[in-house]
Each structure stands twice: as structure tokens, then as C-alpha cells.
Amino acid sequence: MLKLYNSLTRRKEPFKPLQAGKVRMYVCGMTVYDYCHLGHARVMVVFDVLARYLHWKGFEVTYVRNITDIDDKIIRRAAEEGVPIEALTERFIRAMHEDEKALGCLPPDQEPRATRSIPQIIAMIQALIDKGYAYVGENGDVYYAVSRFKDYGKLSGKKPEELRAGARVEVSEAKRDPLDFVLWKRAKPGEPAWDSPWGPGRPGWHIECSAMSTACLGAHFDIHGGGADLQFPHHENEIAQSEAATGHPFVNYWVHAGFVRVNQEKMSKSLGNFIRLRELLQKYPGEVIRLCLLSSHYRSPLEFSEDSLRHAQAGLTRLYTALRGLPEAEEGEEGRIWRQRFEAAMDDDLGTPEALAVLFDLAKEINRLRDRDPDRAARLGATLKALGNVLGILTQDPETFLKGETADLSDEEIERLIEQRNQARKRRDWASADRIRDQLREKGIVLEDTPQGTLWRRA
Ligand SMILES: Nc1ncnc2c1ncn2[C@@H]1O[C@H](COP(=O)(O)OP(=O)(O)OP(=O)(O)O)[C@@H](O)[C@H]1O
Ligand SMILES: [Zn+2]
Fold this sequence. Notes:
four-stranded parallel sheet; 15 strands; 15% strand; binds adenosine-5'-triphosphate; cytoplasm; zinc; Cys-tRNA/MSH_ligase; ligase; aminoacyl-trna synthetase
């Protein structure tokens, strides 16, 4: 049985959906004012794997991920570029979809956009006002009254009194309590605006997600995900809004992906320390980036390095090399054992590093059997491919992947590297010699030292 770490209870819990056999999942998506970076890629891939894995276990999954297509940063960026907001957001939504596809993610079942959900947002704000959880400030903005919601802080473990002590209030704001947050922002002249009972304006970020998730999945659903940065205040505020507005519990399992970091800092658009996914995709296949992301547990911080990508590249080459040249076969009885090992790893809070270790062991076993018992090797190959597919990898023809891998090394380059290695060996510089051999092996070039010299072949 799948166990998931639930940020709400702070422990791993057996996963039981509200409705037998069906899972409803909402994930906070991108604010579309720039290209996606590796942090976004992690959220995309982690929840894609969760959706795929639940599906593999027999659940019918509805996966919703929103698009925040109106917000201060978007407005500012569009003004800087001198383009209409919609042109800006369309450009980055399209880019996001391309990136996501390159990473091998299946599209979410629904992608609601804030600007297309205004009626639902207004209705929820109205419900909050009617029930006494929200008020119109003197400046015309609508605020959520945090003190009215007695469970505030249950997700983040933060206490309102302590938050209040540390809070700072901007003079321009009309909040009654420093913890109150905006639900509806009154438009300033020239800003994009939608009509509402409180005058023309636009929604706050937190209410968008409450309204869109409820509209798509109902008041109470199974899984809500996002990056760890969203736990507070975004998700805390979502709970306050939704539970107050609907009178129902909101979400059963809160799942948060750890940060992708650069020099110990969160990779983020606002910090400007981000590496665009599209740039990486020019150097590495999407599947390599995906494997790299899955090599760490989803809750651990992931320190980005080119080294980790190269490592993933070598790993994927190893897996495809095991599959290459195997005859077509159905999975056999023996595959069951491997499936069980894989499932045990994944059931433990989506243990993708351990699940990948199972795949690498399986690849080793296939290589061991390849010459001795090709049929058995082929049946295990079918299992390797099937399990890889649950993680969204090994989806290509091995030959195609490996050709792409070696395509950037011409015969001349290979010969040149071999010559360098021979020189290193003459100098008894074994470390350099081994490094060149490994480098070639990663590219799928196998060396064989014979009395006549070093021979090479594409593996
Ligand atoms: N470095 C990161 N590691 C993991 N997840 C991240 C990272 N950065 C963003 N996310 C997640 O990606 C999703 C989209 O986030 P969003 O578009 O608000 O990006 P952002 O880069 O955090 O923006 P900003 O830098 O302006 O705060 C959210 O679920 C968020 O938690
Ligand atoms: Zn959200």
C-alpha cells in the first residue's frame, strides 16, 4: 500500500482516497511571466510520477494543475516589454507546455487559468464575506480575516500570535490584522480589471487556487501538491479560505516537493539564480533531466550541478544499453519479483532513488543473462521497460536514444580520445586513463585493449 508523507500530519500515512479507486489531485502551477527553470521541472516531474504511479496501481486519477496568468509580476513584466498581458502569458504558457513535453510529462487533465475562473473566485469571496470571514478594507481591497479561522496555522505549524509579533504592516494597506491577506485587489488606473461587487479589480493569488481547485475537484479532495515554498503562507491560506467558504474539510494529503537549489539557495525567478529548462534541454535530452530529478527523493533539497546531469546521462545510457538488441518478448513470471521490489520502493513515499536502483540491478541481471539465456534476458527487458515507463523513462527505442548519445562523438574524436588515453597510460597516469575510458563509456563507446592496440566499438 502506498504511503505518502502528509505535511498536514507531519508523518507518512497510508494513502486512502475519498472515493474508492479514484484520486483527485490539485497542484499549484506556474506564474507565467518567464521561462520555466529546473525548480518548476521538479514540480512537473514529481507530480507527473505520482499521477502515473497512482494510475499504475489501478486508480483513476484526475490531475489538475492551475496556471496563474494574472499577478503583479506579470503586469510589471508586460509593461516592461510593452506587450499586452495576454501576449506575454500566452508565450510562456506555450513554452511551458513544450518544456513539459520534452521532460516526458503527461499533460494534466485540467489546467484552469485564473483569468478564466473569475466568476468562481468572486463567488467564493462573496461566500467568505457572507459568513463573516472577509471584509472590504477602506482602500476598497477585500481581505480575509485570519483571526476568524480558528485552525489557522495547522498546516505550517505556525502560531498566529507568533506570526503577528513578527509581522510588519505596510502603511498603504487597510488590514485590520497584520495576518490578514488580500482576496480582491482594487484596480489602480491603467491596471487590468474585472468587474466585481467590490468594484473593478483582480483576484489575490491565494483565492485563485481555492476557487479553481474547488471548481474542478469539489470542496473536499485527496491530494494537494506544490513546492515546499508554498506550504506557508499560500497553502495555509488556501485551507483557511476553502474550509471557511465551503464548511467542509479541504484536502486529505498535502504533498510538498523540496527545493531545487543553487549554492544552498532556492532556485527562483525573483532571485534571478535560475537555469532555464530550455537551455539545459539543448545540452541534455529531457529524459536525462528527468532521471536526474528522480535520482533524489522528492522531499530532499536538490543541489543542482552539471555533474549530477552527467551522472544521470551515464545512468540512462546504461539502462538503454541493457535493452538494446533484445528480441521482442512478453514479461515473464520472473518479472513479478522485480515488480514487487519496485513497488515496495515506490510505496514508501514515492522512493524514486530506490526504485531506480531496482532498475539498475535489473539492467545488470539482463546483461549477465544476455549471452547465456537470451530469452530470459528479453523477458526481463520487457519488465525493465514497463517499470521505467511508470517513471516516464525508457520510452524511446534504445537504438534511437543511444545513437543520439554517440552522435556528438565522431570517429575522429573517439580516436583522438583513445590516443590521449594511450599517452596517459604510457605516463602511468592511470587516473586520467580511466577517466577517458569512463567518458567514452558514458557515450556508449566500449574499449578493448588487445596486444595489437586498443580497439573500440559502439556498444
Ligand atoms: N526552486 C524550486 N524548487 C522546487 N519547486 C519550485 C522551485 N521554484 C518554484 N517551485 C514550484 O514551482 C511552482 C510554480 O512556482 P512559481 O511560478 O510561483 O515560481 P517561482 O520561481 O517560485 O516564482 P518566484 O521566484 O517569483 O517566487 C510552484 O509549485 C513552486 O512551489
Ligand atoms: Zn496554489
